[in-house]
């Protein structure tokens, strides 16, 4: 039996298809910001601490089951009583208190870091959520019309949130109707978007130190907000700083092919930087909000 258990302990980890890094992440996705890494480390070490406590608890439980099970003649000898044992009660009170205090301290430390807003961010982005899409404004960058650069999604267009890597970014968010939630899984972070942040006593401004790597990441609404909540997606495009600056420059100009200001997708396409700058969303799909265009048995487009 012991050999079988040892063999299973050796074979199971090697046949699950998980790398050592995936095992240590305990199911968390790979983060792309320093804040995400801090939260992942907190989760990892909290899980390790829980496993250690679990092993000790299971060990004590099985030890008691095996070595203190009822034997012949036990009816004649009453079991040893340990209630009102002051040292044991102190130990069983102090140790859990220490564990909770340590976890609380690390949690507060990470929470303060994630919620920290430093002055003079490198980029400011205003996030507006509405049923059932997103608008992203860059208040410090004016377009050809003289107004801030803006990207708004529709039933035909997935909104693209284009951001630079290696720069501190500040987000200011608000909803025009109901409560939504801004969620990019690779940020390992989500925050509810309220219609009136001041009335709801919500800090609607938050920052990320930087995005560590380029890529395309799916963003979602993580708060049930109505019939098309599941379709309320957007895409983050993280570009190197030089490419992002070129993208902003294009957004400030008129597209000679259309005679209108460059859209987010048109500006990305004009950068000619491969799949990263594909003008259309690559991992999400537009959807139609006209319920008369499909039968009751037909799933929504892009689902």
TrEMBL record:
A Pfam cross-reference name? COX2
Cofactor note text? Binds a copper A center.
- Could you tell me the superkingdom of the organism this chain comes from? Bacteria
Q: Which UniProt keywords apply?
A: Copper, Electron transport, Membrane, Metal-binding, Respiratory chain, Translocase, Transmembrane, Transmembrane helix, Transport
**Location of the Cytochrome oxidase subunit II copper A binding domain:** 120-250
The protein's matches in InterPro entries, at most eight in alphabetical order, are given as:
CcO_II, CcO_II-like_C, Copper_CuA, Cupredoxin, Cyt_c_oxidase_su2, Cyt_c_oxidase_su2_TM_dom, Cyt_c_oxidase_su2_TM_sf
Region forming the signal peptide: none
**What is the membrane topology noted in the UniProt record heading this document?**
Multi-pass membrane protein
Q: Where are the transmembrane segments?
A: 43-66, 86-106
Q: What is its main location?
A: membrane
Query: Which intervals of the chain are annotated as region Disordered?
Result: 284-303
UniProt similarity note: Belongs to the cytochrome c oxidase subunit 2 family.
Task: Please give the name of this protein.
Answer: Cytochrome c oxidase subunit 2
Organism lineage reads as: Bacteria, Bacillati, Actinomycetota, Actinomycetes, Pseudonocardiales
Gene name of the encoded protein: coxB
């Amino acid at each position: 039996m012991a050999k079988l258990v040892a063999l299973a302990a050796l074979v199971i980890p090697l046949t699950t298809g998980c790398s050592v890094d995936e095992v240590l992440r305990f199911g968390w996705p790979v983060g792309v910001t320093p804040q995400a890494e801090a939260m992942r480390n907190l989760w990892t070490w909290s899980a390790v601490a829980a496993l250690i406590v679990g092993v000790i608890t299971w060990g004590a439980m099985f030890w008691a089951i095996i070595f203190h099970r009822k034997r012949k003649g036990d009816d004649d000898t009453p079991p040893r009583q340990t209630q009102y044992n002051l040292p044991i009660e102190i130990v069983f009170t102090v140790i859990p208190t220490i564990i909770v205090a340590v976890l609380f301290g690390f949690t507060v430390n990470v929470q303060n870091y994630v919620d920290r807003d430093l002055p003079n961010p490198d980029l400011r982005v205003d996030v507006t959520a509405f049923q059932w899409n997103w608008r992203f404004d860059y208040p410090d960058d004016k377009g050809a019309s003289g107004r801030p650069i803006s990207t708004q999604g529709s039933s035909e267009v997935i909104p693209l949130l284009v951001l630079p890597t290696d720069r501190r970014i500040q987000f200011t968010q608000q909803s025009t109707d109901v409560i939504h939630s801004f969620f990019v899984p690779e940020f390992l972070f989500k925050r509810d978007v309220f219609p009136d942040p001041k009335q709801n006593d919500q800090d609607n401004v938050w920052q990320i130190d930087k995005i560590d790597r380029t890529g395309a990441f799916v963003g979602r609404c993580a708060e049930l907000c109505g019939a098309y909540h599941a379709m309320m997606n957007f895409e983050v495009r993280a570009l190197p700083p030089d490419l992002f600056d070129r993208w902003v420059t294009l957004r400030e100009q008129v597209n000679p092919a259309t005679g209108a200001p460059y859209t987010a997708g048109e500006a990305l396409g004009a950068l000619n930087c491969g799949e990263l700058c594909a003008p259309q969303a690559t991992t999400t799909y537009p959807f139609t909000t006209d319920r008369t265009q499909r039968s009751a048995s037909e799933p929504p487009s892009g689902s």
